[in-house]
Design a protein that fits this description.
2 copies of one chain form a homodimer.
Chain A (H helix, E strand, L loop, with lengths): L3 H13 L2 H7 L4 H15 L4 E3 L4 E3 L1 H28 L4 E7 L7 H12 L3 E7 L2 H10 L4 E4 L8 E9 L1 E6 L9 E3 L8 E4 L5 H13 L7 E4 L2 H9 L5 E4 L10 E7 L7 E8 L5 H17 L11
Parallel strand pairs in A: 3-4, 3-5, 8-12, 9-10
Antiparallel strand pairs in A: 1-2, 5-13, 6-13, 7-11, 7-12
Helix pairs in contact in A: 1-2, 1-3, 1-4
Chain A binds a DNA duplex (25 and 25 nucleotides) through helix 3.
Chain lengths: 309, 309
DNA sequence: TTTCCTTACGCCTATCGTAAGCATA
DNA sequence: TATGCTTACGATAGGCGTAAGGAAA
């Protein structure tokens, strides 16, 4: 098979139509150039150039081959440039996992940020449950995960992204709906809708902990896993619930949201990015750098429970 | 710059993810393979593979480079195959020149024949006057010309394609229109429309010669160059004319065509293909072979005046 | 201790450059 | 006769294979 150096020789001769000038352009002498062209023609299996002592011209096969030869050289160039761009994080792809619950506000924000910063980087977005995301990170199938804590694997790095308040949600017309805010103690003995301990472990633990610390025991509790289900049950007057503040973006009809009084900390709902510590995706590194820089401008991030307490 | 052999090395390693197995596949030993990969990485300017003693994997830049590397190898393959196909006449292009007058029937026929025989050959069709066609042939800008005789250049080969009868054309209602055929002698003293000696030299000479040989002298003669102009003037009753039989395909209103009595030869209008004798276009060679074979089946071609008499 | 990638080194093939050959205008 | 591609041939650089080195499980 032929080599790219022979292609370069051929293109030079085809453009100059003169072995001597082509050789000069290639910084070599004519005889080895002639030899390389002969070798190339042998590899291709057909003459590419017609030469007499006075004239050098392309054969029909040579004309066609010239087109493809130029394309090969361009392809080789761009292969190098593209690889460098990927290595510098200006191109390539970032595989991002996210949970259904984090997709409403944070995924679009992250995508927008990435497109602005790295327009030539492809984003592969995959909705997965938290556990699957962490496994995919470890296996290298994901570069970035958007999950709730905790993240205990030492090979993974938790990066706090956002903290949110927790709000009470109750059906329109509920007795508490007239209050501007609701004290935790008021939840004692009321009907309650809660996150499932299996499928929404983080919120289950979070809400359970808050209720326990306040010495509050709701009366009748429904367990569901999706935020939409909670809102539906609240609307159906099966109880009230505690949900992250981002939930208000749904403008869900028939329910109202109320602040909680003296909740500690005030914004207990955590969301973070998780990356594999030894991930070598340069585009990811660029994205993380940018996020760090922007967080730096916004002030110090507060303490985080990325690792299990 | 790198070489295709290095690309082949890289693709093998990227696919095997094991230097030893890749080397076996490439019929070489690991050490030189490692060296080639290192040289390639140096040429690209960034690591393409991450290797420890236990694992070999692609870096993000390597993943991108692999895509383009495969494209390069495919491109090299197809460049060879395409060049061979052109050399064998199965692909490529044929540049065909034709005169406005020959385009009505013969160009479509030629194009259809070529498409059927050589579907991957591009046809470049160019309408040019005969002289320009012959010059273009000599300069290599045309492969094939569709012209009237004579062709006197020794470097060009005349190939008779078709002979046609000459018909009299006269306006509807003309005195001769009631005759089934017209004797040449009847043309003596009638008004006549003729081809221009400058722009339609062939027909001018042909018709002039026929009239002279018959001792016929038309009365008043209009000279025009295009067949459409002749028909228009005949229709306008400025005279009758002698035109090739193919003209009847126009179904021109207001004129009628009549056979000539005892014209010698019966089909004096010649059309031929002209090629450059040393044209090396294999697709052209295939087309000519095919045309020869078909002509052979159709019987011997009659004598031709391709060269000047 | 085994696996397997890398480094080291000698051999050899293949390319280069110089010089001579040869065909064409 | 001059130009310019090809062939011939000796020098050399670069790739290959063998052998040794070194890191990780």
């Amino acid at each position: 098979m032929f080599e790219l150096s022979q292609i370069r020789c051929f293109v030079a001769v085809a453009e100059e139509l003169h072995f001597g000038k082509a050789a000069a352009r290639l910084n070599m002498t004519q005889p080895p150039l002639s030899r390389q062209i002969q070798l190339l023609e042998h590899a291709v299996g057909t003459p590419l150039l017609f030469r007499s002592t006075r004239v050098v011209e392309l054969t029909p096969a040579g004309r066609r081959f010239l087109r493809e030869a130029r394309a090969l050289l361009r392809g080789a160039e761009t292969a190098v440039l593209d690889a460098r761009r990927v290595a510098q994080g200006h191109a390539g792809e970032i595989a991002i996992g996210f949970t259904a619950g984090s997709s409403y506000r944070d995924v679009p924000e992250l995508v927008a940020r990435c497109r602005a910063l790295l327009p030539d980087v492809n984003l592969k977005l995959r909705e997965m449950v938290s556990q699957a995301q962490l496994e995919a990170l470890l296996a290298g199938r994901l570069d970035l995960a958007l999950v709730r804590p905790p993240v205990v694997q030492p090979a993974l790095q938790w990066r706090p992204l956002r903290r949110e308040r927790l709000l009470a949600v109750l059906p329109e017309g509920h007795a508490y709906a007239e209050r501007g805010s609701i004290a935790l103690e008021a939840l004692d003995g009321v009907d309650f809708v809660m996150y499932s301990p299996d499928e929404a472990r983080y919120f289950y633990d979070l809400v359970s902990d808050i209720l326990r610390r306040s010495g509050v025991r709701p009366r009748h509790v429904q367990y569901v896993s999706q935020i939409h289900s909670i809102l539906a049950l609240v609307r159906a007057r099966l109880g009230m619930a505690l949900v992250p503040a981002g939930t208000t973006v749904f403008h869900y009809e028939g329910v109202v949201f109320r602040e909680l009084v003296d909740l500690q900390p005030a914004d207990p709902v955590e969301l973070g990015l998780v990356v594999k510590r030894d991930d070598d995706n340069p585009a990811l590194a660029r994205l993380l750098e940018d996020l760090d820089a922007r967080r730096g401008m916004a002030g110090d991030p507060r303490a985080s429970t990325g690792r299990a307490p």
